[in-house]
Amino acid sequence: MVDGFIDKWTEKKQQPSFISKIKDAGKQSVGLRKQISIVLQRIEVQKQKLNNAQSRFEKRDAALFQRTVKALAERDTMRANVLAGELAEIRKVEKMLMHASLALESVSLRLNTVSELGDVVTVLAPAAGVLNNIQNGMSGIFPEAGRELENIGTLLTDIVSTTHNDTGVPVNIGTASLEAEKILQEAETAAESKLKAQLPEISTTASTQERTSVET
Question: Residues 87, 65: contact at Cβ < 8 Å?
Answer without folding.
Answer: yes
